[in-house]
Design brief:
Layout: H1 5-26, H2 30-54, E1 60-61, E2 64-65, H3 66-84
Antiparallel strand pairs: 1-2
Length: 85
Amino acid sequence: MSLSSPALVLSIIIASAYGALFHVWKGKTAKDLLIYLAAGLVGFGLGQLVGNTLGLGIFMIGQVHVVEASLMCWLVLLIAKWLKM
């Protein structure tokens, strides 16, 4: 099942917000911000894929698997921070 435009926009907004929040918490430079924004988008996308594949629907807003995508997003952000060290 593919994301419709509103779901895609919502996903990008949430993932970008997570990346920006992670940068406020752990980032220092503008380069860090770009890394965390990209990691947030990748992680949220992977979480959305996992939610679709496993058929999970813990908490959804339209077609967006918020819980699954958020958990994967934060996991990828933490991995990005760990790899950056």
